[in-house]
Amino acid sequence: MLRRYRKQLITITAVVVFFALFGIILGSAGSKAGSYRKLTIITQVIELIKRNYVEKVDLSRLFSAAFYGMAEGLDPESFYLSKAEYRQYQKDMVMPRAGVGLVVAKRSSNSFPEVLRVISGSSANKAGILPGDLVVSIEGRPTREMTLFQVRNLLSGDEGSEVKLTVRRAGAKGEIELSLIRHHLKKERGEKRIIEGKVGYFKIPTFTKGVVANFKKWLRELERDGIDYLVIDLRDASGGSLPDMTRAADFLLERGVILSLRSRGQLIASYRAKKGRFFTGKVEVLINSRTKGIPEAFALALAENNRAEVVGEKSFGDGAVRKAIPLSDGSAIILSVAKFVSPKGVSLPGHGVIPSFSIPLPQAKEVGGSPYELQLTKAVEHLIGTSE
Description:
Number of domains: 3
Structural class: alpha+beta
CATH superfamily of the largest domain: 2-enoyl-CoA Hydratase, Chain A, domain 1
Strand content: 15-25%
Oligomer: single chain
């Protein structure tokens, strides 16, 4: 009982500190005197706890909880890193650890992590985890209150090590318990094929140098072979780099803005097409609710420059430049410092991409065959049908 009360006290105090500090950060909304009064309240709360709480409280835990809450209150991809977490973050940037093949995201700070993509050949893929599944616990620890870094950190580890997950699937009875083995995974390269002898198809999982190089090669092959149609599949796609995405957009555009970056209402960067087009046929971009971030910007760039039609389902609604900012005690904070804005001024965070032609994913129980393939078939039919 006492332990539960203590946890509640830490949470409540963290909230008090968070709102007080948040008010100070947004000091332009009030006077300096008001901000100083909030600092006084923080001091009073700390003193009251030190003098009156039934047990000694580690005040550093209160502040740490406040720092986590302060960052998470902004957006799910902004988070505080403790000193140990920041050290691990820096190591992973240089040499990524082994993983289970899951790309996850949160739709809100207090939601369960959702599987956006399952990397082919990974242990998660072999275990049958699907895009849209929710990871509700890792090693018995509930994930709802974790930051995205903490979730991704627990999914990573040494080559050959084991991690236990609990997964929740829409429409399934009960939760799924799994033990997965971490492995170093091959870099994704994209997937290409010809559909019905006349439609080129390329699936982009993420915008990296390898994927974009293969995309460029495929476009040249299609143009050489006289293929007039192209479907770019961005379903479940996320991440990558802005330079690689803009390079891919250049392959299809002759002119126009690809993407702008804005921060606090100010334009800070603009990417324009550089007349590098390699394919002149008709293009369609297929998206779904897990198309996130940089791929969303790519889809809007083609659509708003009248180079492609976007079909499928409304996308995730994310798009920002994130930056790791070290703090004086060795910890750090990851902040969204600029947001993606489309050629026509659409802000991606919180809005997403709305397709001009809706193609909902068929329910597996309602159809024979793969729902993903049937959704793609309808996209191909629409692409060809609008050209005849």
